Amino acid sequence: MVVETVPRDSKSSNFSETIVVPKIDLESIEFVLPPSKSHMIRLLALASLGTGTTIITVNQPIGLDTVSMINCLRSLGVEINQHSPNNWIVFGIGNKGFNLTQPTVNCGNSGTTMRILMALMSTMDQSTILEGDSSLSMRENSALKDSLRSAGVSIMETTNNHLPVKISGPWFADESIISKIDLDLTKSSQPLTAWLLASPLLNQEVILSPSKSTVSNRHHNLSLRLCNEFGANIETIDGQYHLGGWKVKNPKEVIVPGDSSMASFAILLCKLHNNKINISFWPEHKDCLGNEILKNESSNLGIIWQGNEINSTSNGSIANYDLTDCNDLITPLSVIIAMSSGGTLTGIGHTKYKESNRISKTISLMEDFGLSAYYEGGILTIPGGQIPETPTAAVSSHNDHRIFMTAVALMTKVGGKVIGRGLHKIADPMFLDRLGIVE
Questions:
Q1: Distance separating alpha carbons of residues 305 and 299, to the nearest angstrom
Q2: Which candidate, 288, 291, 294, 281, places its Cα nearest to that of 222?
Q3: Whose CA, among 40, 53, 200, 425, lies 20 to 30 Å from 438?
Q4: What is the per-residue pLDDT across 89-104, written as a single tens digit (0 to 9) for each?
């Protein structure tokens, strides 16, 4: 029996409503990490290109970004059904190819979905419209657009924003098009991910030449690993990716690991309430995507991490944290460092291009709670020994779910109002329930 517990409409709300978060006595928390949307979105793309069926198993409800990917693929004729609360079945399109079933393909708030779909839609021999919500429409994505235009794809903005775009393919329709594509990965690794995941549909050999400076390397390495697990044999020679069409071999079942980045909120709550937190569904090292820094550096944050249990025991020590490969940690980790012994964050320049400018918006959020940090020369310096205060006004989340979740965590200690009702559902629908907060 098919069970549908998520909306098929991928258009997100504008997250403009305010919620009141009361002070809460959190003696202990069972913190179950949600399924990794980075993994599941990639798995959905690959499974859709095969000839068989794949069951994708999760440990708890999926976030809105993953729902957006499911609905986008459905818009392209892929059958995806929720068989039970924890199982999704993907029926690969095989040789049929994509077939537009909706007037537009809407990515909601998901930047990863947007870029992967942009590449997949570029393989189609028809014009399609790709759109997203107001927040996503403002996000920069020129690197991927430029690379697809080099492959002969027409991509036209229909407004003054980055979305919607009209995409007219297929790529490499003209045999004279060069097969070496330059990729700018200085702001995001997702252009490379998009090319890798769409590579089964190539009809010629292509060499991808990434920029010398790259970010989020663990994420595009994940994309490469998953492609090879689904049957590819993609080679890298002198830093270049040699691609050609390949047949996707659908595994019968894949299990989505936990999202290790979400452990940052568990650590923040542990520092705030000086309590015991049990973290479950922590992934294997290969699936941590750089977020293992939380566990490896926990002692610097004054945290003892034994098995699945964390405890706050001290202020830790001053340290530097390089977030080149784990930029999602910037906001909660900044607050944790402020409440510990202080330190610096480097490798964060590319966080300017996330849902919000996470550097300036993190500093702004901290100021709302009476905390300070300053950014200069590519380094975010955070003094230690700080104590959060109750905000004097409603705190803005800037349409960024990690800023919203950080604000909520802080408010469990000091109380307050935060704008952005529902933002946590983008990645972790159970976040508020886990804390006993009723919206």
A1: 8
A2: 288
A3: 40
A4: 999 998 788 999 999 9
The whole-angstrom separation of Cα 252 and Cα 250 is 6
CB 406 within 8 A of CB 365: yes
Q: Select from 217, 232, 255 the last residue of a domain.
A: 255
The reply to whether the predicted model has a pTM over 0.90 is: yes
Q: Are residues 166 and 238 in the same domain?
A: yes
Instruction: Mark whether 133 and 271 lie in a shared domain.
Output: no
What distance in Å separates the CA atoms of residue 2 and residue 330, rounded to the nearest whole number? 39
DSSP characters over 136-156: HHTS--HHHHHHHHHTT-EEE
Asked whether the beta carbons of 363 and 398 are under 8 A apart, the reply is: no
Instruction: Please write the tens of the pLDDT for every residue from 185-226.
Output: 999 999 999 999 999 999 999 999 999 888 899 999 999 999
Please, which residues have CB within 8 angstroms of residue 12's CB and are 6 or more apart in sequence? 64, 68, 108, 109, 133, 135, 426
Question: Could you read off the pLDDT of 229-284 as tens digits, one per residue?
Answer: 999 999 899 999 999 999 999 999 999 999 999 999 999 999 999 999 999 999 99
Neighbours of 182 (CB within 10 A): 13
C-alpha to C-alpha distance for 397 and 82, rounded to whole angstroms: 31
Length of the chain: 439
Tokens of 332: 């909660």
Question: Nearest CA to 22 among 294, 301, 408?
Answer: 408
Which structural domain, as residue segments, surrounds residue 394? 18-34+258-434
The total number of structural domains in the chain stands at 2
Binning the chain into helix, strand and coil, the percentages to the nearest 5 are 35, 20, 45
CA pair distance 402, 409, nearest whole angstrom: 10
Query: Which of 121, 298, 143 is closest to 215 using CA atoms?
Result: 143
Quick: pLDDT tens for 5-54: 444 444 445 799 999 999 999 988 999 999 999 999 999 999 999 999 99
Q: What tokens appear for 341 in the block?
A: 């012994």
Radius of gyration for the alpha carbons in the chain, expressed in angstroms and rounded: 21
Rounded distance between C-alpha atoms, residue 181 and residue 174, angstroms: 15
- How far is it, in rounded angstroms, from Cα 29 to Cα 258? 17
CATH code: domain of residue 352: 3.65.10.10
